[in-house]
């Protein structure tokens, strides 16, 4: 597949990606190279990447613990200390090998160290490939609040090799699928409905679907790199999705949810809110919701849960002047940003989600 040449960086695929990486290393003459991994990617992916890199300098590995609870400024501090202790300078390169947590935190750490060193993302999860590693957003959580501290700064290169997906458990694949479904709903309904019948799905088409999904995000992010308007459309399903994810992360009685699992719920809620607020076709809402539901487990919410989830909405990054702003659909491929939603409409959306069980 052809490399995507964006305004400030490249996204390269399969074997061509390693050619691009080695050309970058040679051209920039980096003084040192560091590779950030978590314990999982270190075990399952590091050997493969190390065999592909051609470099005349020593490569140092930095390992962090996996999981959202470690996506913090404290982990960044450990990365910075390791970089400093091993002589990293402004001409060093940080390669982030892992899922969305590794690329988010690695990009942020690189962007701040010595006021910014080059970094490359090598996403190893579907979520990382189609979402987290794309678009230049890097950051960490603030306690249980998602991505509250961060910076928008693009990598030099994103390397997409679907071979890494063979290391993933099914739930991690589904987590990434949520973002692909989102891209379909906001921009390309044909891609969304390609997942309607799993029995007809052809695995060999996955690289092409991943590339299509990436193009949806890059087209939007390139037009609005700092999220002043259009890019907010990429947050479809994320307003309540992030609130649900944060609530489950902080609760001692609730099972943790993967990002995609929470966003899948958020998308169904947003589809129903689109019916209530923008008169989105209810039959389309039902059809899309059923497709999403087939891939994700049902989560139960009590009235107390819903009340608690709504308290997290005030931290959503799209908010302005105290208003909670939602991204909703006027139709497939026609998102509308800055929509106002009432408590009663949110209650109806949760009731609708429950009715699908």
Automatic annotation (TrEMBL):
Enzymatic class: lyase
Residue stretches making up the 3-dehydroquinate synthase C-terminal domain: 176-319
Residue ranges of domain 3-dehydroquinate synthase N-terminal in the record: 62-174
Essential cofactor(s): NAD(+); Co(2+)
Matching InterPro entries: Dehydroquinate_synthase, DHQ_synth_AroB, DHQ_synth_fam, DHQS/DOIS_N, DHQS_C
GO terms assigned for molecular function: 3-dehydroquinate synthase activity
SUPFAM superfamilies for the chain: Dehydroquinate synthase-like
Keyword annotations of the record: Cobalt, Lyase, Metal-binding, NAD, Nucleotide-binding, Zinc
Pfam family, one: DHQS_C
Superkingdom: Bacteria
EC number of the protein: 4.2.3.4
PANTHER family given in the database record: 3-DEHYDROQUINATE SYNTHASE
NCBIfam families according to UniProt: aroB
Physiological role: Catalyzes the conversion of 3-deoxy-D-arabino-heptulosonate 7-phosphate (DAHP) to dehydroquinate (DHQ).
Protein name per its UniProtKB record: 3-dehydroquinate synthase
Protein species of origin: Psychroflexus salinarum
Gene giving rise to this polypeptide: aroB
């Amino acid at each position: 597949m052809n490399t995507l040449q964006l305004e400030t960086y490249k996204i390269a695929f399969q074997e061509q990606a390693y050619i691009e990486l080695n050309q970058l290393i040679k051209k920039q003459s980096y003084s040192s190279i560091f590779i950030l991994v978590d314990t999982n990617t270190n075990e399952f992916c590091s050997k493969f990447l190390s065999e592909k890199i051609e470099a005349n300098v020593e490569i140092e590995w930095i390992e962090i613990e996996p999981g959202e609870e470690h996506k913090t400024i404290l982990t960044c501090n450990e990365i910075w200390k390791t970089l400093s202790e091993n002589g990293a300078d402004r001409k060093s390169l940080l390669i982030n090998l892992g899922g969305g947590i590794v690329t988010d935190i690695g990009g942020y750490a690189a962007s701040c160290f010595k006021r910014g060193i080059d970094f490359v993302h090598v996403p190893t999860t579907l979520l990382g490939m189609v979402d987290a590693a794309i678009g230049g957003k890097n950051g960490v959580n603030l306690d249980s609040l998602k991505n509250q501290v961060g910076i928008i700064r693009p990598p030099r290169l994103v390397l997409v090799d679907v071979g890494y997906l063979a290391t993933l458990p099914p739930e991690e694949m589904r987590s990434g699928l949520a973002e692909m479904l989102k891209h379909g709903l906001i921009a390309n309904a044909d891609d969304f409905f390609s997942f309607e019948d799993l029995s007809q799905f052809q695995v060999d088409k996955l690289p092409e679907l991943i590339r299509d999904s990436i193009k949806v995000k890059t087209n939007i992010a390139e037009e609005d790199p700092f999220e002043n308007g259009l890019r907010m459309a990429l947050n479809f399903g994320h307003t309540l999705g992030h609130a649900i994810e944060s609530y489950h992360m902080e609760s001692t009685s609730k099972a943790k949810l993967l990002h995609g699992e929470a966003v899948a719920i958020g998308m169904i809620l947003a589809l129903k809110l689109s019916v209530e607020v923008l008169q989105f076709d209810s039959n389309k809402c039902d059809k899309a919701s059923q497709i999403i539901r087939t891939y994700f487990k049902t989560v139960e919410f009590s009235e107390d849960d819903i009340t608690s989830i709504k308290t997290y909405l005030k931290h959503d990054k799209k908010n302005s002047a105290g208003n909670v702003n939602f991204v909703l659909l006027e139709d497939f491929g026609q998102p509308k940003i800055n929509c106002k939603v009432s408590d009663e409409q949110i209650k109806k959306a949760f009731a609708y989600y429950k009715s699908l069980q």
